[in-house]
Design goal:
The protein contains 12 helices and 14 strands. Strand 9, helix 7 and strand 10 form a beta-alpha-beta unit. The protein has one domain: NADP-dependent oxidoreductase domain (TIM Barrel). Strands 3-4-5-8-9-10-11-14 form an 8-stranded parallel barrel, surrounded by 5 helices. It has a two-stranded antiparallel ribbon with strand order 1-2. A two-stranded antiparallel sheet has the order 6-7. It has 332 residues and is of the alpha/beta class.
Length: 332
């Protein structure tokens, strides 16, 4: 495979680790098919196109398509020198076959024929990571996140508390041990709720925090306290979900979902006002949405999902669009 490589994008350093990430990362979630069907080779072409255009950070998780996204991303990166990019995945779930004799049927129709088992113990963490390495076809990953320990993903605060305690006793010390051995380079958590992010920052030894959809043009919950805590503790902040689950990317069309939940009326009202301000300033909302998180000190990388080479090209073009200072200054 011959890639036509551009120069790598500018990089930012993760806390105390010395690990440098491209300021735009490729999010492989769409390759799992959770947001609609994505042909495997098309998804792989998207990842390769990101590399060609200078992206050097790739993020994935076992949950995305129940292993499908890792398989597609691994295929995309297989012939690219491993030392030229940073790779992250997540733990908290391992996969078991679905639909075979004596096995339960698939819990979701998309992805591949596996079901997730939620497990934040030491054994579950090691099993999850080993499966990820096999699917990705690599001998190491650089960053490992403990995935989805908050009430948004677990369903209730009680369930989140139980998962948190299990992860603090199992997944976290296991990953810190792997880091001390040089097996991985950084330990983090990936979640959705700022209050649970603050809990993790207060009680866990972390290098990096990935928070989805809370540092965007329409949701700025993480802008003050979470970012301040990350800076104080020298924890790198990875921004994800810049489009709030696709809401900003769809331009208000078929925008029933906001951060993977039904869109509240107040969000629709904020979006209407945002579009009006952008129109007056001659600003493309998608471009502003991509650039907004990277304006904040402490943000190491913005992970953006893409399902095709064209989407990758559009995202990186939006990163470079000129936006007047007056637009940013007018944001509430």
């Amino acid at each position: 495979m011959r890639l036509l490589e551009a120069a790598p994008l500018p990089e930012r350093t993760v806390g105390r680790t010395g690990l440098a990430l491209s300021e735009i990362g490729f999010g492989a979630g769409p390759l799992g098919g959770f947001y609609g069907p994505v042909e495997a080779e098309e998804g792989a072409r998207a990842a390769r196109r990101a590399y060609e255009l200078g992206v050097r950070y790739f993020d994935v998780a076992p949950l995305y398509g129940h292993g499908r996204a890792e398989l597609a991303l691994g295929h995309a990166l297989r012939d690219i020198p491993r030392d030229t990019y940073v790779l992250s995945t997540k733990v908290g779930r391992y996969m078991v076959p679905a639909g075979a004799p004596t096995r339960p049927e698939r819990v979701r129709g998309e992805g591949i024929a596996f079901n997730p088992v939620l497990d934040y113990t030491r054994d579950g963490t090691l099993r999850s990571l080993e499966q990820s390495l096999l699917r990705l076809g690599v001998s190491r990953v650089d960053i490992v996140y403990i995935h989805d320990v908050d009430a948004h993903s677990q369903g209730t605060d009680e369930a989140a508390e139980a998962a948190f305690r299990e992860a603090m006793q199992g997944a976290l010390p296991t990953l810190l041990e792997l880091k001390s051995q040089g097996v991985i380079r950084a330990v983090g958590v990936g979640l959705n709720q700022p209050r649970w992010a603050l809990r993790w920052l207060a009680e866990a030894e972390l290098d990096v925090l990935m928070l989805a959809g809370r540092l965007t043009l329409l949701n700025r919950e993480a802008e003050e306290q979470v970012l301040a805590e990350c800076r104080a503790r020298q924890v790198g902040y990875i921004a994800a979900g810049a489009f709030n689950g696709g809401y900003l990317a769809r331009g208000g069309l078929d925008a029933s979902q906001f951060n993977y939940r039904l869109t509240p009326p107040e969000v629709r009202e904020r979006y209407t006002r945002l579009v009006a301000r952008a129109s007056l300033a001659g600003v493309n909302v998608t471009s502003a949405a991509l650039q907004f998180p990277l304006r904040h000190a402490g943000v190491v990388s913005l992970v953006v999902g893409a399902a095709s080479p064209r989407e990758v090209e559009q995202n990186l073009a939006a990163r470079g669009s000129a936006i007047p200072t007056a637009f940013w200054d007018a944001l509430p």
